[in-house]
Amino acid sequence: MVYLSLLAFGAVLLVLPTTSRGCSQPIGWHVKTLTQRVSLADIVVHAKALNKTETPGFEVYWPEAYAGTMAVYCVLKGGPLPYNITVVEMGYIGGLCTANEVDIDEEYILLLTRRDNSTFLPNDVNVQTAVITATRDNLDTVALTCGLPNFTIPLGGAANLPEQRGCPTHPNESGEQCLHAGAASHVVVSINTIMFLYFVLFALF
């Protein structure tokens, strides 16, 4: 009986929200969709990770925290940008709710903000990761987001882009219906609901 009750209590705990070490989400926080985050981000690019180095100010955290050298294939928002950019403060930095991890030679959609003329920072819109795997579905979703200006090839990138890489067709040119940001989808679990589930499960066992 005691074992089953503990098992039931453990099952209820699974619905409780969890966060990263040392981090606390804002009160009332809920998940935003990729379309919403793209709409709110300063800069959005499709890029490939080329290299990792120590990130200024966080050298003690190397290699968990690092700067990433990225080859930009397309500037989806916030251009113009050069073909090669450096994004600092990537990876895992203690106390933050998000980890912006990249693997060398992999492609990503990056949400960024400008640090200075030559470096950029991850733009953790809504306290969610700024690094999204560049799957075809994710690229299509970003490309169809309503309100984005025309996509641009990075400066100096025309001669360097790999075959079959570059910018997607903008909805203004393709005639496809763009995707509005809309309302965020989220799940709210109140403490009363959690306690109710616990006592129901307790009674069953």
Walk me through this protein's architecture:
By secondary structure, the chain is an alpha+beta fold. Helix content is 22%, strand content 23%. The chain is built from 5 helices and 6 strands. It has a 5-stranded mixed β-barrel. A hairpin with a 4-residue loop joins strand 4 and strand 5 (119-122). The longest helix is centred in the last third of the chain and has 14 residues, at 191-204. The protein starts with a helix and ends with a helix.
Features:
5 helices; alpha+beta; disordered N terminus; 22% helix
Structural class: alpha+beta
3D shape: globular
Total strands: the figure is 6
Number of distinct helices: 5
Strand content: 15-25%
Gap between N and C termini: 7 Å
Low-confidence regions? 1-21, 183-202
Mean pLDDT, to the nearest integer, reads: 81
Rg: 21 Å
Question: Largest beta sheet: what is the strand line-up?
Answer: 1-2-3-5-4
Bin the helical content: 10-25%
The profile of the biggest β sheet is:
5 strands, mixed, barrel
Order of helices and strands: HHEEEEEEHHH
What's a quick, concise take on this entry?
The chain has helices at residues 2-13, 34-40, 136-143, 171-174, 191-204; strands at 43-53, 65-77, 84-91, 107-114, 119-122, 131-133.
Write the layout of secondary structure elements.
Elements: H1 2-13, H2 34-40, E1 43-53, E2 65-77, E3 84-91, E4 107-114, E5 119-122, E6 131-133, H3 136-143, H4 171-174, H5 191-204
Parallel strand pairs: 3-5
Antiparallel strand pairs: 1-2, 1-4, 2-3, 4-5, 4-6
Helix pairs in contact: 1-5
